[in-house]
Specification:
Distance between the termini: 77 Å
Strand content: 15-25%
Shape: elongated
Radius of gyration: 27 Å
Strand order of the largest sheet: 2-1-3-4-5-11
Helix content: 40-55%
Largest sheet: 6 strands, parallel
Structural class: alpha/beta
Amino acid sequence: MPGHRGSVTIDDVARHVGVAKGTVSRVLNNYTDISEATRKRILKAVQDLGYQPSATARNLKRGRQDTLGIVIPVGHGSGADPFLAEFIDGIARALDELGLDLLVTTAHSRDHMIETIQRLIARRKVDGFILTRTEVEDPRIAFLSEQGFPFVTHGRSSFPDSHAWFDIDNEKAFADGVRHIYSLGHSRIGFLGGSLELNFARQRRDGYRAGLEALGVPHDPALETLQDLDEKGGFAGAEALLAKLETPPTALLCVTDALAIGAIQFCRKYGLEVGKDVTVIGYDGLPFGEYLDPPLTTFSQSALDAGSRVARMLVDVLDGKDPTSLKALAEATLIRRASDGAPQRTPEALADVLRPRLNQQP
C-alpha cells in the first residue's frame, strides 16, 4: 500500500486496479471510452488510496498557475510602507479563501519593474498582476495592456477606461480635509505631499487646492512641500513648513499616515503640542494611528478591504469578465481623534514661539 495521503501517484492507482496508467488518466479527465465497470473501480481506488492529481499538472493542462503576482515599487522612499503591508495582507487573505497563491517581489526602478514583470510572465509564474502605487503615466499599465496580460490596478492613471481598477476618491477626501480644518478656525493650511508622478499624490494635491478654492482661501505655493512617503519625509516636510516660513501654517494635511507621524515627531521635538499648537491630519486610517500620542486624526481607507477587493476583481478578470466593466470608486472616512483642533496661536505667534526653540537645538 502506498504511503501517506498526497504521496500516491497515478502509477500507484494503475497498479492497484491492474490497468494501464493511460486508462487511469482518461478516467480522471472524463473521457467516455472506458467501460463503466472499469471507471468505477478506478474512482474507488482513487478514493481509497487518497490520490490527488498534481496541481502543477492540472494547471499546465488549463494554462493556469493559480498564482497572482504583485511587484512592489520601493523607489519612493527608504522607509517601510505600513499601508502596503496591510494591503498585501488583504490580498493574501482573499486568495487564501479562494485557494489561490500570491507571489510578492520588489523592484527599485521603473525599468526594473518592467523587467521583473516580463520575467514573471516569461517563466509563467503568475496568471495576472495587481498593480499598486499607480503613476499618472504608468509604464506597467501600458506594457501589460500591449501584452494582453491580465491585471488590475489599485488606483487610477491617466487612462482609466482601458482596464479594471479600484480606487478611493482622493480629490474629495482632501477637499473635505481642507474644509474640516478651515471649520476649526485655521486659514493657513500646509500640505505634505509626495511625488506627483504618483497618481494618488497628484489627486490629493489637486483636492487640497480645490478645497482652498471652494472656500475662497488664496493658494500659497509656499505651503506645499513634496517629500518621500515615510516618517523621515514627514519630519522634513514639517521642518520646511513650520521652521522655515515667516508665517508658518497652523495645520498640516498629510497624504499618508507615515508623513503625519513624521510631522508629529518634529512638533514633539520642538515642544509644540499637536492638536493645539499645530493640527496634523493623516490619510490611510492605519490601526496604529489610534495609539499615537496624540491619537492621529486621519482619513480612513481600509487597506485590508482594498487588497481583498482588487484580488477578487483580478480573479473575475481571469474568469472572463470584461476588465473595462470592473471599476469601483469608494470614499474615505474622516476619523477624528486628538491631533486636530482649533488654533491656539496665529501663524505669526506660532513662529515667535518656535524660532527660539529652533535656535537652541544643536
